[in-house]
From TrEMBL:
This is Acyl-[acyl-carrier-protein] hydrolase. It comes from Gossypium stocksii. Residues 253-323 form the Acyl-ACP thioesterase-like C-terminal domain. One of its GO terms (cellular component) is chloroplast. GO terms for molecular function: acyl carrier activity; fatty acyl-[ACP] hydrolase activity. The keyword Lipid metabolism applies. Residues 93-227 form the Acyl-ACP thioesterase N-terminal hotdog domain. Its main location: plastid. Plays an essential role in chain termination during de novo fatty acid synthesis.
Amino acid sequence: MAAAFSCPVFFPSTFSYNGNRYHGRIKIKINATSSTKVKTLNEIAGAGKGSSSLATSTEFGHLSQEQIRQRIPTKKQLVDPYRQGLIIERGVGYRQTVVVRSYEVGPYKTATLESLLNLFQETALNHVWMSGLLSNGFGATHGMVRNNLIWVVSRMQVQVDHYPIWGEVLEIDTWVGASGKNGMRRDWLIRSQATGITYARATSTWVMMNEKTRRLSKMPEEVRDEISPWFIDKRAINEDVPEKIIKLDNNARYVNSDLKPKRSDLDMNHHVNNVKYVRWMLETIPDKFLESHQLSGIVLEYRRECGSSDRVQSLCQPDEDETLTNGVEQSLLKNMVLTPGIMEGNGYLGPLDVKSYGYTHLLQIKGDSKNEEIVRGRTRWRKKLSTLPYSS
């Protein structure tokens, strides 16, 4: 005889009412017997719709073992309970809720720039995942795979007002738009779920490269037809005239010539991941400066790939005439900028006299007769004030 039982199940929930946002849990009581088949969370939440289950895959025998394990959706999903993601912006944007992990923070318990860049990359991939367009490539659509194409980032800009702290719950929004005839723009916003304050915003430009020839490619019409319905005319950062980054030479003040990619630096496209470049750049800046300053913005212009066999040289030049004496920084007034009195949408008064300091960066192939560039960069810095924008 089957035994009867009941079991409450809780699901996290976010909803809006009269313009206010609320967070809570939805309680569902399941009544069943010992003979009842218990469904997975994927089946309960409905996220399995459009994805290939193990039974379906083995029944038709047309999916690889890798695809069976990944369960990549073949149709658009609105909710992903595993990644805490959902489709927004009238069905084309993406929002993911994440918690700042212990391994994503530095010595001051704040998330590092590398962690933010990794979150940007992860949410971008999850966005494509939920769209139903993802093939077996690194964010590549089905049409891209048929044409041996992969995505490569050509430019990225990040602005950071405040860094999230360890254990904080964040909401990350991302969406895509057109960039010329053959490119795509992707933007992000990071905000605190507890306060609604926007912490960081970013924009990037992506182009397509032939995976075999490693040359840039035009966007095929079938790929354009796939991704253009997802385009949004909206920008996280308004940049009328892109900042021009000068090329440094070997006379740069700080030089690190002992850089070599590790196998762990390579991504699924078999080249050094762009996040690793930022680490090489920042490590070239003097420690004294890094101890007392916080990065507030970065612009990156990518020139070429970096492989596992390349030797890399990092060049770094501070804005003139900045000097460091016993850890005390002095700068000309031309390097001073005023932050807005009221941070947009944050609802608090920002500092009115915060100096901003800049560095120009270059990563290039060491030993190459042409000194072939990998990436140019510009970083902006300000004095460390507080890890909490709402602290007294």
